[in-house]
Amino acid sequence: SEPKLEGFVPLYQSWESFYTRNMYRRVRDCWNRPIASKAGPYIDVLERKSEDHNWHLDITGKKLNVMNLGSYNYLGFSENTGACATSSIDSVSQAGVGVCSTRQEYGYSNIHKELDTVTAEFLGVEAAITFPMGFATNSMNLPCFMQKGCLLLSDELNHASLVLGSRLTGATIRVFKHNNIKDLEKKLKTAIIEGQPRTHRAWKKILIVVEGVYSMEGSIVRLPEILELKKKYKAYVYLDEAHSIGALGPHGRGVTDYFGINPKEIDIMMGTFTKSFGAAGGYIGGSKTLINYLKANSHSAVYSCSMSPPVAKQVITSMKIIMGQMNGNDGLRRIRQLAWNTRYIRRRLQEMGFIVYGNKDSPVVPVLIYYPTKVVALSRKCLAEGLGIVVVGFPATPIIESRARLCLSASHTPEMLDKTLELFDKFGTELKLKYSKKSRIAD
Ligand code: PMP
């Protein structure tokens, strides 16, 4: 019954996916062939074995038990036992699961208040506001800061939630090359020149939007240089720490901790609770005035129910553990273990001849595969031997830069890492993925 008009695209298909599908039909076909002939390459996680950080997967009918090197459980707090789980269970008996109200009405309990306070303390800023979803924290709050007549400078690899939020602002968006300070300065200079023939600034505000650790590249933002540009050109900085908070720096406080920068120098500190804290939701930290402004104006605060109490409790407990206020030095142990695991696996992969992107301290380790067809083969071989990794290709990466992405965790044991390396060594040779002739250590 669909109308047969030329150029008609069904509702459930966007132009891009229609185009991509046809272009990559061959790649998709090799996905489908050996494991799933009919149902497609979908993975259902049957059960999570938290104690040993593994997964039980059902890959279209095939039941597998795999090691998890694919999820962002950086500090291993996504456990079903231990202090975090116990505190969440207790909070259910105290406050239930859902609050059924926004924070401005009846959805702001003592637990939420504690979460805001602990988050501000953790970040080292004056105040913080928390939201039930990380994605919405970006997409719904950026429009509070920027409007038409403002200029938003966005790193080309910024996450989809930042891109969506930026578009919703109505501001002029200019994209600079990934982590490229020269290009950013060029764009800032242009912005200033644009104002010169006039008697007032061309742009009401200029906001530089960056991430702490980029999840496809494993690169760390060049924060010190960006802060210099911010001062020189009187711009503001919005920093998304989804992948760096908890995971980076000697105290796990993210990129500011890593570079030894006072967090108060960042105008808007954003992050999510879905990675290092093993929970859900997001936060914005900054000055008291900024946070009060958001409490009254953020769509995500005013029109959306506040966070589920057990989820909030999970975040509070994990933050307290990281800060050393609970469980002795367990937090520090996790931070150090993650840092060790990260450096170990990256160094060993490079010694084997793999090309690995990113910074040596990034818990995201992208291993370059280049060819889309090899991506499929590697993923399949790893799964068959009980190793769960994430493979990414176009459109998430440039066409010829397909990669496998390993996400390290403090929960990975040396045995798990060595098994992973053994499998990579074997499959890397079989699929000719060792492109680098000499071993190389990333900077
Ligand atoms: N920002 C970045 C940089 C992310 O990578 C993600 C998701 N991985 C988000 C925001 C959205 O966070 P969430 O998954 O918690 O909604």
From TrEMBL:
<comment type="pathway">
    <text>Sphingolipid metabolism.</text>
</comment>
<keyword id="KW-0443">Lipid metabolism</keyword>
<keyword id="KW-0808">Transferase</keyword>
<comment type="pathway">
    <text>Lipid metabolism; sphingolipid metabolism.</text>
</comment>
<dbReference type="GO" id="GO:0005783">
    <property type="term" value="C:endoplasmic reticulum"/>
</dbReference>
<keyword id="KW-0746">Sphingolipid metabolism</keyword>
<dbReference type="GO" id="GO:0046512">
    <property type="term" value="P:sphingosine biosynthetic process"/>
</dbReference>
<keyword id="KW-0012">Acyltransferase</keyword>
<dbReference type="GO" id="GO:0030170">
    <property type="term" value="F:pyridoxal phosphate binding"/>
</dbReference>
<keyword id="KW-0663">Pyridoxal phosphate</keyword>
<dbReference type="GO" id="GO:0046513">
    <property type="term" value="P:ceramide biosynthetic process"/>
</dbReference>
<dbReference type="GO" id="GO:0004758">
    <property type="term" value="F:serine C-palmitoyltransferase activity"/>
</dbReference>
<comment type="similarity">
    <text>Belongs to the class-II pyridoxal-phosphate-dependent aminotransferase family.</text>
</comment>
<keyword id="KW-0472">Membrane</keyword>
<feature type="domain" description="Aminotransferase class I/classII large">
    <location>
        <begin position="65"/>
        <end position="422"/>
    </location>
</feature>
<keyword id="KW-0812">Transmembrane</keyword>
<protein>
    <recommendedName>
        <fullName>serine C-palmitoyltransferase</fullName>
        <ecNumber>2.3.1.50</ecNumber>
    </recommendedName>
</protein>
<dbReference type="GO" id="GO:0016020">
    <property type="term" value="C:membrane"/>
</dbReference>
<keyword id="KW-0256">Endoplasmic reticulum</keyword>
<dbReference type="GO" id="GO:0017059">
    <property type="term" value="C:serine palmitoyltransferase complex"/>
</dbReference>
<keyword id="KW-1133">Transmembrane helix</keyword>
